[in-house]
Amino acid sequence: MVICPEDLCTGCGVCAEVCPTHCISLVDDSEGFRRPIIDASKCTDCGLCRDHCPANHDFHFSKRLEQPEVYAAKAHNKDILKESSSGGVFSVLAKYVIDREGSVFGCVLDDHLNPIHVEATAEEEVAAMRGSKYVQSDPGDTFRKAKTLLQDGKHVLYSGTPCQIAGLNSFLGKDYDNLLTVDLICHGVPSNLFFHEYLRWLEKKLKCTISEYRFRDKRRMGWGSYGSMQYEKLQKTKTFTRWLTANNDYYFHYFYLRGDNYRESCYRCKYAKASREGDFTLGDYWGIQKHHPEIAAKDGVSLVLVNTEKAKRALSDISKSLDLVSSKLEYAIENNRNLVAPMARPQTRNTIYKDLTQKGFERVSRENIKLKRFVPWIKRKIPIRVKNKIKMLLKRN
Ligand SMILES: Cc1cc2nc3c(=O)[nH]c(=O)nc-3n(C[C@H](O)[C@H](O)[C@H](O)COP(=O)(O)OP(=O)(O)OC[C@H]3O[C@@H](n4cnc5c(N)ncnc54)[C@H](O)[C@@H]3O)c2cc1C
Ligand code: SF4
Ligand code: SF4
Ligand code: SF4
Fold it and tell me: Whose CA is nearest to atom 2 of ligand 3?
């Protein structure tokens, strides 16, 4: 039995949650992405899994605005702003819900650096959720936990990729006044297998153990795509920091940003559009200086889409904690194509996971990255005059 086409399955896990005979398990495929496997001997063909699968149907229950309201925003709290990937709006929303004795669900890296969704009921617990983790997170049993809390009348904030929010909405099956959802503008997600092969390679190269990893870290170079990691040399007790930049961070700056290693569903993502899954949509407001020079952008600015009536009320409640400027969707899209279109699937995707498992991260990076680094280097070395001649020759032909 097929629940949905294989290349559209996002691994949200709702099918397993709703199956009345518990015959669906989520198992890592050869690329390390979770997929539903059905125990045919227990399946009664009731069709509930297909009916709840967000790849087959849309599930929107919140009262939507005709057009999303668009804002540029950043948190007043300087510590939150520094620790967040963009403008820290997620943490301001989290505080709002926790102050009302609610629960926040978001992604953390666990002690073994695996991305998982967990619940936070105190502000200190929200800290680990800050910062984007560019790997597919495992929602575990958080949909079920959130539903129980909502039924008990507790306030809940659930944040995740749009396909995770679509999964949650399908699982809940209705709107709750006490629920706020946040979906992120989403490039795509590599598997945890890819991330951990990279970590293993780094540990071997540096003869170390990595204890902490931040995909984005503003402490050294401000808002951008630079990260950091903490590691201990083997048999030593001192902890070192390595700043991750375009020169040494192959995982993020090469494979991730080029879209080489995403889940297949990401290249056909049905959520890469202005009509969104969450009450709020958050992203980086790249290119903000062009349209809103009045906002100081050095430490990051969030792009905020307010998609529902509920989100509109919540924004009004938290607005005193934010620098907030009204903006336009077309400005936001200019530098954030993933808001309206999925990433293109590159040729490299055909072989990258096979190569990773057969040859290892070292060979994959050597074969893919050296050439990519060499070409821009050559381009930089060619004098402008020669470049112009080549351009003219090309135009003539
Ligand atoms: C995989 C991924 C791809 C993204 N792609 C884009 C993009 O193309 N363009 C863009 O503008 N913004 C993108 N973002 C969003 C952006 O990086 C920020 O997360 C967002 O702007 C919120 O920032 P913040 O400062 O409000 O809060 P932060 O504190 O930085 O927010 C972190 C939030 O993201 C959640 N989160 C972190 N990692 C994951 C994960 N792996 N899965 C699910 N939820 C996660 C946390 O639970 C938390 O709610 C992406 C984020 C992720 C995780
Ligand atoms: S998209 Fe979600 S519900 Fe559909 S098959 Fe995949 S894991 Fe199951
Ligand atoms: S058809 Fe029904 S019993 Fe069979 S896997 Fe789907 S939900 Fe479970
Ligand atoms: S790109 Fe789409 S399918 Fe992929 S993780 Fe993001 S929302 Fe899910």
Answer: 46
Q: Is the CB of 25 under 6 A from ligand 3?
A: no
Residue 128 predicted with pLDDT over 70: yes
Rounded to an integer, what distance in angstroms lies between the CA atom of residue 187 and that of residue 158? 19
Q: Where are the domains of the chain?
A: 6-52, 60-397
Task: Return the pLDDT at 167.
Answer: 98
Residue-level pLDDT at 246: 82
**CB 166: neighbour CB atoms within 10 A?**
28
Provide residues with CB under 6 Å of ligand 2.
Answer: 3-4, 9-15, 36, 53-55, 167
Residue 290 has pLDDT above 60, yes or no: yes
The topology under which CATH files domain 6-52 is: Alpha-Beta Plaits (3.30.70)
Q: Which atom of ligand 3 is nearest to the CA of 50?
A: 6
Interatomic CA distance for residues 232 and 71, integer angstroms: 42
Lowest average pLDDT, out of 21-35, 145-159, 332-346, 356-370, goes to: 356-370
Per-residue pLDDT reduced to its tens digit, 251-282: 888 899 899 999 999 999 999 999 999 999 99
CA dihedral of 66, 169, 182, 341, whole degrees rounded to 10? -70
Nearest residue (by CA) to ligand 1, atom 43, is: 160
